UniProtKB/TrEMBL annotation:
It comes from Agitococcus lubricus. Residues 152-314 form the YagK/YfjJ C-terminal domain. This is Uncharacterized protein DUF3296. The lineage of its organism: Bacteria, Pseudomonadati, Pseudomonadota, Gammaproteobacteria, Moraxellales. It comes from the Bacteria. InterPro entries: YagK_YfjJ_C.
Length: 317
DNA sequence: GGGCACAGAAACCAGTTTCC
DNA sequence: GGAAACTGGTTTCTGTGCCC
């Protein structure tokens, strides 16, 4: 009975998903759905609520698409996604037996939930969450040290902060492998283009958000003695990204526009643009602004899936 | 510009300590 | 006692510099 109710909800509220052609749902979105679903189970949400939750409904509707993300030989997954794979595996869904688009029965769903719950009670699962937070703090610390070292080495730095992303209408087609490919090209160009001739430091991190999908936060520090126009440099870097990610409607957000800087200025938080070593507040703000790349508090922005061995955070040495 | 070696950084994992 | 935080060793990746 409960399940029939569920199916009714599906018909009413998710026609848009049914109407989508196969594989047109954003990879990032699918992963976040899985995580939300697993999180409900981990939080010991009552079964009825889990079954009626939108993430469960969507997973049921597009399970085949979720299952296509299972490629453990090529990707590493977060603990939540691994818990989901474990549950699917126990149900025999990962051996190619479920690709006929059939609905799971009530009993199978309950079984899946139980297996995910069991997995989430293992030490390794809990451990991974705390290790990830700790790793983020380590990265943050190393980034802070790096920035402070830079400030000691250069009396003036021109600091650029840009976010790279993709057009909303193209996000459904962006795979994590595309993001890494674009980032690799961007980093290669950084070493080639005359634009970066006086670059003294840079850093990046790849993130995944519910709204923005995959995106990259990046910073670039140029010699303050060679460049003054941070707004212009940010725009040129943004244009380069747009050219690299043109297939997916590459877009960027510059924090160095006069409007953005004015907002920071008013809040006394301006840490980008020209930063003089003698300006203590500016230097601290710079640490804060660039430290955002490895902010441990951004727990919902981490990557749920990444190509094996690849990093999510990096900086020039 | 491409290939290669090397050093350092990021990630992973297991063990230990600290805190509640 | 269990969870969270921390440490240290190891592996793997990446940036850099050098050579051709």
């Amino acid at each position: 009975m409960l399940w029939q109710c569920c199916q009714l909800v599906i018909r009413v509220s998710d026609m848009s998903i049914l109407a989508r052609p196969l594989c047109s749902i954003s990879e990032s979105f699918l992963l976040i759905q899985i995580e939300t679903f697993v999180d409900l189970i981990v939080q010991r949400t009552p079964l009825r609520e889990v079954l009626n939750h939108l993430s469960m409904i969507k997973i049921k509707l597009t399970l085949n698409e979720h299952l296509t993300l299972f490629q453990p030989e090529y990707f590493d997954y977060s603990e939540h996604i691994n818990a989901f794979w474990y549950g699917c595996d126990q149900l025999g869904l990962l051996d190619g037996g479920y690709y006929d688009g059939q609905c799971l029965s009530d009993a199978e769903i309950e079984c899946l939930i139980n297996h995910i719950w069991q997995y989430s009670q293992q030490k390794e699962f809990k451990r991974k969450v705390s290790d990830r937070c700790y790793q983020a703090r380590q990265n943050r610390q190393s980034l802070e040290n790096y920035i402070r070292q830079l400030q000691q080495q250069h009396s003036r730095l021109l600091v650029i902060r840009v976010d790279f992303g993709y057009a909303k209408e193209k996000q459904n087609f962006v795979k994590i492998t595309d993001v890494y490919r674009h980032l690799d090209t961007m980093n290669r160009e950084r070493d080639r283009q005359p634009l970066f001739e006086h670059l003294v430091a840079s850093g990046w991190c790849i993130e995944q958000g519910n709204e923005k999908g995959y995106h990259i936060h990046a910073f670039y520090c140029f010699k303050g003695s060679k460049h003054q126009q941070d707004w212009y440099l940010a725009q040129e870097i943004g244009r380069l990204w747009k050219a690299i990610a043109v297939d997916f409607g590459g877009g960027y957000h510059s924090c160095n526009t006069p409007e953005s800087k004015e907002i920071y200025e008013r809040a006394n938080r301006l840490g980008i643009g020209m930063i003089h070593r003698g300006n203590g507040v500016g230097c601290e703000n710079m640490v804060h602004a660039l430290g955002y790349l490895a902010k441990p508090e951004k727990d919902d922005q981490y990557l749920r899936m990444k190509p094996k061995g690849r990093r999510t955070f990096g900086k020039t040495q």
